[in-house]
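Revision sheet: structure tokens.
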Amino acid sequence: MPEASSGRSKLPLGRALIPVVAVGLAGWFHPFPRPAAAPEGSGAKSAPDSTKGVDDVRIRAFQGAYGPLIDSVYYAEGDVVFMMAGRPIHFQDGRMLAEDRLEAVERFDPIFYPYPLEPLVDPRPRTDPPTYSTDYLEALFGTTETEIRRHCRSISFLGHDMFLNTLVLEPLREVEREIRAAAAADAEVAEWIEDLEVTYSFIFRDIADSRTRSLHGFGLAVDLVPSSYGGRQVYWRWSRVLDREGWYRIPLTQRWSPPQAVIMAFEHNGFVWGGKWSHFDTIHFEYRPEIILTNRIRSPYAPPLPF
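Predicted:
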């Protein structure tokens, strides 16, 4: 994705995450189930005649991204609820909240956001830093470092050791395959691989100055640090020290970036790049297949889906 140049790149995420439906882009989306009754004993009132949410592309993308990890989907109190690892996660207009957070729904932003699938040509407009819920990830992987580590394994990526969630191991292997294939014909990519000095993966921490757990804290993000940034800008917080008001307007030509083929390899396999955020972080990639899928459905840079 960025398929800006041709608009015809495939999204082979299914091979890594949902092999049983790995039949091309359309196979990524499971048919949305008819409304079901709430699980017995859940305390939720089901609304079997409701159709709220059926046509919401975010719901369809979430099902496509995490289908094998979703036990069931049902309606309760007019909302779509995903049962994940035995824990109900309420859609709540994309906020994905556990039941004990529902009273504080206004504190959270939807986890879904616009993400450009084409290469950037201008800096993104400034937005306020969001506050996301990670309830669905906590349901799947735990809340403590010990619990989350049980879901992580070591992997070698481009000759560097990483410790990551098992959910991303196959997608990352595919990323490496695509990057090495690109390097065979693109000297810029080969030089980027050679210049890659440090990689960061699992780090149990929150996002700086927030109460949101970083995806590093679930083993779902990587930072790829070169030997030198060549004097260019990398991270919005560092840039804000130099220009407190105008950091978000820093031209792309003054920001460090991996080669476009590297960004595309990650996006093809369900990762978003921090360089496309308003609060940019150009060494950062994180596994968010629901973001890629949501924006692919809506993107004029991708072929229409047959539904």
